[in-house]
Every structure is written in structure tokens, then in C-alpha cells.
Amino acid sequence: RAAGFPARKAIEEFNFDHQPALKRDTLAHLGTAQFISKAQNVVLLGPPGTGKTHLSIGLGIAAAHHGHRVLFATAVEWVTRLQTAHQHGRLAAELAKLRRYGLLIVDEVGYIPFEQDAANLFFQLVSSRYEHASLVLTSNLPFSRWGDVFSDHVVAAAMIDRIVHHADVLTLKGNSYRLRNTEIDTLPS
Ligand code: ADP
Ligand code: MG
Predict the structure, then answer these.
(1) Domain extents in the chain
(2) What fold characterizes domain 29-136?
(3) Nearest residue CA, atom 20 of ligand 1?
(4) Torsion sign over Cα 33, 108, 54, 5
(5) How far is the CA of 20 from the centre of ligand 2 (A)?
(6) Cα 131 to averaged position of ligand 2 atoms, centre (Å)
(7) Is the interface score ipTM higher than 0.95?
(8) Which residue, among 130, 127, 100, 157, has the nearest Cα to 40 in the 3D structure?
(9) Per-position pLDDT tens, the chain of length 189
(10) Ligand 2 centroid from CA 89, angstroms
């Protein structure tokens, strides 16, 4: 797919009974894509299998339906793309090009830690979009642990500050939906 979605998932296919803390109305509102017109962000936090990627794709598809340009990639893929641009002396041009996309989805912040250089490139991506264009980010880690991911607590704090200044932060909870019908989540505690 042009936008790079790894699967086709819709907000309407999401089972909200499995995420009682998450309001259907909140997602319905985000699905109107107004947050993109306002250059706001969405952060989806929670353990593996709780639907972060599903909802990020759903928001991306909804945004595309509303006429916004959308690109999906993992955090590692975004950094790789920026490293390539940087090596060719066209980082600024790449960031400017990406700003023409109303929404970039950054999946899986936190699964793989970044070295200082990668962390700095990621910070530049966040900075370049701040109050200009939207990000949807997903992470298995709370913000308090992003300092470890970016191997620099000062850079992580500056990044989080820009991300959450205009953002909805949604926290998903519970067991993996992937394992919902297996014995793993029905074991007696
Ligand atoms: P995460 O990115 O949080 O690890 P995913 O979004 O990849 O989790 O979800 C894992 C699988 O379970 C996907 O196939 C997704 O569509 C499905 N899934 C997760 N949560 C729900 C839910 N509440 N309702 C419907 N499907 C869900
Ligand atoms: Mg995921």
C-alpha cells in the first residue's frame, strides 16, 4: 500500500469491550481527523497485543479518507530513512518533504533502543513537525522510560514535551488480544 500500512485495520473493527478504559467516542472523534487539521498528535501506549498498531492504522485510514496524506512506518524505519537522507546531505529536504504529509505514524517506539545519533535524528523529526503536522506514535513503554530508549534523558524529555504539548495520550491495558482465546490469559492467578 502507498501509505505503508502493514495490514488493513479499521477503528470500527476494534472491540472496545476488551479495552473498557478506552472510550469509543474518543476514537470516533479522532477518526474525524480534526486533530490533523490542528497539527495535534496521538500517542498510544500499552503492552504488546493491546491494539496499538491496529488503532494507529485505523486512524491512518480514517485520515486518508478525509483527504490527508499519511505515511506509516516503525520508529526504526523512520530513523533509517532519516540516516540515509543525512548521509546524502539532504536531511533538511527530507524533513521538509515529510512535512507535506499531514500525518506520519510512528509504530513501536521503544522495542529497539536508539544510539545517540539515531535519537538525535528522531528528535529532529519530532521538532520539525511540532505545531506544523501530526504524529501518531505507539509505544510499549511509558514516557518515564523513554530516556532509556533514546539513551539520553535530556533529548527524551525535550521530545516528549513537544509531542504531548498538543496530544491525546491513550493508554491501553490488559492481556494481549492475540492470546485472548488461549490458556495463557485464563491461567488461575
Ligand atoms: P500491539 O500493536 O499493541 O502489539 P496489535 O494492534 O498488533 O497490538 O493487535 C494484535 C492483534 O489483535 C491484531 O490482529 C489486532 O487487530 C487485534 N486486536 C488487538 N486488540 C483488539 C481489539 N480490542 N479489538 C479487535 N482486535 C484487536
Ligand atoms: Mg504493534
Answers:
(1) 29-136
(2) Rossmann fold (3.40.50)
(3) 51
(4) positive
(5) 19
(6) 26
(7) yes
(8) 130
(9) 479 999 999 999 999 999 999 999 999 999 999 999 999 999 999 999 999 999 999 999 999 999 999 999 999 999 999 999 999 999 999 999 999 999 999 999 999 999 999 999 999 999 999 999 999 999 999 999 999 999 999 999 999 999 999 999 999 999 999 988 886 655 554
(10) 32
Dist CA 57 CA 11 (whole Å): 8
Interatomic CA distance for residues 98 and 173, integer angstroms: 32
Q: Could you give the CA distance from residue 107 to residue 131 in angstroms, rounded to a whole number?
A: 20
Pocket lined around ligand 1, Cβ cut-off 6 Å? 9, 14-15, 18-19, 46, 48-54, 177-178
Q: Is 17 exposed, middle or buried (0-12, 13-18, 19+ CB in 10 A)?
A: exposed
- Helix (H) or strand (E) segment spanning residue 95: helix 91-98
| Residue owning grid cell 524529555 | 157
